[in-house]
């Protein structure tokens, strides 16, 4: 009986509190919101420096400065040729994380040491022998060293695939825009506005470089070097040649669009021809054994029974 009394009192307290909150919000809620808006517009409260520092992501606040500091100490160890080659790959990959080549080298060193130590610790926790621990650590070090390179190469391949798929449609839209009366720069801006992806971003960067004073030829060459796709390099070379010789840009774009669509059709046919060969391995190793077990299993059992009797 006392439990029901306590439950009833709790429900009454909850109902009274909720009703008071609703009435207060109904009567004074609009005034409170208006006062808050006035305070934000007229006299915004100064944000403390500590809060501003904490609002920055942890990556920008701690990890990035640490990588930069370690990279500054490893400058003498990193070969200049290796750094230039890695920087070119990073640019082709779209500059993931806005990290420089030295910072990526630091990540490679840390990955090699960290993964080797992790494998060594795991071997110690699982009571492995000393040769096994050394072997696992030897496996972890090159794996940690090569993991950043594998990530960069996957980004490069992904970006190139996106550009190859988007280029024919972008050239069609570019051709239509130029034939409708837009200039080449205006047509590129229209393509960048109507499309999304790596190619649109590269067009925007190229136009920004042109607006900052870089000649169009150099901006096109730099874009082709950044993306490193043969189709885009051919397109940029054709536009540069047309601009140099005074050829109609519309005819060049129309010819390039037809060639790009033909190349994309040829790639699709090539992938379709490779599909049966790629399907052969999973069929042989996964599908055929299951079929043989289902078909020949009863016969094998009967043969075993016959020989057993």
TrEMBL record:
GO cellular component, one term: plasma membrane
InterPro entries linked: T2SS_GspF_dom
Transmembrane segment boundaries: 6-27, 106-122, 134-152, 280-304
One Pfam family hit: T2SSF
Membrane topology: Multi-pass membrane protein
Primary subcellular site in the record, as a coarse category: membrane
Domain Type II secretion system protein GspF, residue spans: 171-296
UniProt keyword list: Cell membrane, Membrane, Transmembrane, Transmembrane helix
Compartment(s) where it occurs, according to its Swiss-Prot or TrEMBL record: Cell membrane
PANTHER family referenced in this protein's UniProt entry, alphabetically: INTEGRAL MEMBRANE PROTEIN-RELATED, PILUS ASSEMBLE PROTEIN
Name of the protein: Tight adherence protein C
